[in-house]
Amino acid sequence: MRTPLIRSGAALAAAAVLTLPAAAALALPSAPALAGPPPPATRNELAAPTPSPGAATVTKAGTSFLTATGIAAGQPVRVGASTGDHLYWSFPARAGQIHEITATVSFPKGRTGASTWTVEVFDGLRRRQACTAGAQAPTAAASATSVPLGCTLRQVRSWAEPWSADPLPGTYYVRLSVVDLPEPDLGLPIDVDLLVSDVGDGDAPADDGELKAPLVPNTKAGTVLTGEPAATPAEEEDDESFLTGWLPEVSSRWIWTTAGGVLAAVAGVVGFALTRRPRRP
Known about the structure:
Residues 1-35 form the signal peptide. Keywords: Membrane, Signal, Transmembrane, Transmembrane helix. This is Peptidase. By secondary structure, the protein is of the alpha+beta class. It has a domain at 69-198: Jelly Rolls (Sandwich). It is 23% helix and 23% strand. It contains four helices and ten strands. The strands form two sheets. The protein has a five-stranded mixed β-sheet with strand order 1-3-9-5-7, with no helix packed on it. Strands 2-10-4-8-6 form a five-stranded antiparallel β-sheet, with no helix packed on it. The radius of gyration is 39 Å and the shape is elongated. The termini are far apart. Residues 1-47 have low confidence and may be disordered.
């Protein structure tokens, strides 16, 4: 009697296994319904930054830190330059912002070899800032018609230690240049398109500090005097020129120079007297 029971149990188990896929197909929803929302796109998958609506295009570039052309975030830049030029721009940054610099250098035809370009960012103290993303120093092949460059800065902090190189609020400088190219290609015309965009949320982190003043270099350290200095009376000038005008200023340098000259002359005379032979009759 045990054998028929075992056979009937095996038959029931086989029937359950055969009917399970059909039941699962009826109970589960379709595949598209199970798919959840797509994962958020990463920063590299985001669309390229676009200029701010209505922003005027900048057509100039400086040749040094002092002559850097000022631009704002979202303001497009398009300039014509020559291969080998150092191009400078400056832009303001506030605490909590994250700036992304994108540039494209377009070449003419007839280049002889590959060239390496670089985009660098400096803060108000001329400290070079690190890039967290972007092609900061790409190499363009000889057949390439353009090369893209990019640099994403770290979030600007509201306070940092003096010894650190953390980005702080103030003026930042962008320098675009070529670092390696064949000599025959030096001086060829190029077109540069550049854009500085703010990709941060503008909220400064809670770092328990505040910068006293933005890092903006003082390019006007002095003032130009428009008036003439007050002149001394004519009599005092005449007396001074008559009495001491022809005399050099007495100092230890003049004393030691005079003494050294006298000693050298005496030594020369004594040496000549000792070495001179008497004349024969």
